[in-house]
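Deliverable D4.2, example record:
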Amino acid sequence: MPLYAAIVVAYLIGSIPAALIAGHAIGKIDIRTVGSKNAGATNIYRVFGIKPYLAVLAFDVAKGYFAASFVASFAATEVMDGLQLSIVCGLVAVIGHVFSVFARFRGGKGVATAAGVMVAIVPGPLLVAVLVYLGVLGATSYVSLGSIGAAVSLPVALLAGHFLGGSEYRMETYAITFLLALLILVTHRSNIDRLIKGKETKTHFFKKPKT
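Output generated by the structure prediction step:
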């Protein structure tokens, strides 16, 4: 598969709006008009509950993993190796999730899809980010703060592994973790503003959401 074709496929896979599909299938609504108005798994939980949330979350993670692993493995180019192809296809999938062509370029915030990409590229350090997410969420009940903490902790974990444990990663790997962290900070800018003002919504999982 030519590189440009792989990029298009990765973008289209990332663009599949699982939260919007779930909203229409379950409640015949545009999920972007209710709750937090975000086309993501957390908003699905707030409106419909834990099972649809888990389904959407798993699908969004799978999009990133599939693009960075399987789509990248079929790409053919003489200027990039396997890791570089995974990074490019994974990044394009995340961009597709945030700017979905199927959702008039109003997609989600990219956290779950970015996590799927990292499963394909740096699964070990990703565990640190997952633990940070769960720890922050458990302590504060702010999904946004947990997501931001996880995104920032991943490149920090890679750097710590390099300086303290002797772990070696290629420059491209450090670059993609920093780039995704920056992207997630940008997509969460309204959440950051609400966190600063004390107006951010808390999410308590495994409790029946208000309808």
